[in-house]
Amino acid sequence: xxxxxxxxxxxxxxxxxxxxxxxxxxxxxxxxxxxxxxxxxxxxxxxxxxxxxxxxxxxxxxxxxxxxxxxxxxxxxxxxxxxxxxxxxxxxxxxxxxxxxxxxxxxxxxxxxxxxxxxxxxxxxxxxxxxxxxxxxxxxxxxxxxxxxxxxxxxxxxxxxxxxxxxxxxxxxxxxxxxxxxxxxxxxxxxxxxxxxxxxxxxxxxxxxxxxxxxxxxxxxxxxxxxxxxxxxxxxxxxxxxxxxxxxxxxxxxxxxxxxxxxxxxxxxxxxxxxxxxxxxxxxxxxxxxxxxxxxxxxxxxxxxxxxxxxxxxxxxxxxxxxxxxxxxxxxxxxxxxxxxxxxxxxxxxxxxxxxxxxxxxxxxxxxxxxxxxxxxxxxxxxxxxxxxxxxxxxxxxxxxxxxxxxxxxxxxxxxxxxxxxxxxxxxxxxxxxxxxxxxxxxxxxxxxxxxxxxxxxxxxxxxxxxxxxxxxxxxxxxxxxxxxxxxxxxxxxxxxxxxxxxxxxxxxxxxxxxxxxxxxxxxxxxxxxxxxxxxxxxxxxxxxxxxxxxxxxxxxxxxxxxxx
Length: 565
What we know:
Elements: H1 2-18, H2 24-37, H3 53-68, H4 72-98, H5 102-116, H6 127-146, H7 153-169, H8 174-186, H9 197-216, H10 219-233, H11 239-245, H12 249-262, H13 269-288, H14 294-313, H15 322-350, H16 357-373, E1 377-381, H17 391-395, E2 398-399, H18 407-412, H19 414-418, H20 433-449, E3 453-457, H21 473-477, H22 481-487, E4 490-496, E5 499-504, H23 540-564
Parallel strand pairs: 1-2, 1-3
Antiparallel strand pairs: 3-5, 4-5
Helix pairs in contact: 1-5, 1-15, 2-3, 3-4, 4-5, 4-6, 5-14, 6-7, 6-8, 6-13, 6-14, 7-9, 8-13, 11-13, 12-13, 12-14, 12-15, 13-14, 14-15, 15-23
């Protein structure tokens, strides 16, 4: 039964992944790895704000895919799935050392499998997906130390190296390491002045990685100095606001409250506490990035789901008062609803029955680009990485721009885009260094690559509610004479969804009237209800989730009554 449930969870999540389009980040990083192998210079010919490790980890997928004649996206997905299964097996090994109860171990393995595969959904293959799977063995090692279990030096080193890999991928998650280490020191399970093997391994991995970056990628530090501040302004959301409104915040906070309410009934309290510390650390790491992106918070709500599973299954009855009974009943209801809804979504996706307008628009663009520019350079003007990727991956076109997306422009005018006044672009002399760098890079890329197609995200009306979509890329870049001359070599090919697609004229052809030219925006991005908190009473998925929750709640209440009787 256990093996069948495990295979079902892994198979359902992976099947749903195979039937979906690759994520924009996945597409960009695979493209960056391919360009790196082709001789491009990272942080010069390829602009990426993150350290190089994540690009380097994508290189094997490109090499293997090319050698076997397979899609690098498929190879990357299979590699991620195998990596997650390996890390799940390692977690199972540590659970065997930590938990004497075989049933409790199997339940926790299934909870982790649910978190790694079906729950990951749109975050499959993101750095955070790998980070949380690398950190779970570290949390279980902490639980073993808290229980005074024997921990071998070699085993601790392996777990420490995985934790170091996680922190190298996303340094924000160092807060998890600090919380776990601080907890073990306070409990006097780790001497404060002693360097335990896992800590030495973390420090050694990060030191070696730092040396590699300094020696082989020195350009990274100059790029960070130039772009770090603008990147902090892009998609900015405050830390404290995200603690309340971040993706999965309600689930995370409820799981932590349930732990506090039922901690006295925990059969294995140290496992509870270490997973709770991991949840808190991941939640803070997501919020400190100040972006509000779902994948930033995936580790926290994945661990919160596992924590809720412990609250539901790893408790000793009876509960002495109604408050604890209510918490346990709600935990059962929330976990059951989450499991059923996520399973249904994955089943629909795996069956190919999922449908949305955004997917249709991408498929139309992929078809057009494949027909007109397969194997040729394409330049995409948009603030969103999802405009260029995975479009370029699936169409077989090449990126003409060193940028995955033009986020620097959105960051440069972040304050102006929120203001009521009409948007006014700066003159070159008034531009900050990052904006001047952007213009010079776009000029150089357009001139050198001479892209076959130019894809422009059309701008909306110049009003604050349209946010980043107020940006008129043609109006902005055409102020530069060299860029304007390059744009004059294109004619309008088609309007596809939110994009205008321009095709380069044959050599010697005279400019045409359909050349890219700025025009006033006439439409708004949001219609009807404005952005913000509102009831989704007409959303079928929301109504389905509410219905499932009420049914599970009724079952949980009846079950709790039987326990009391």
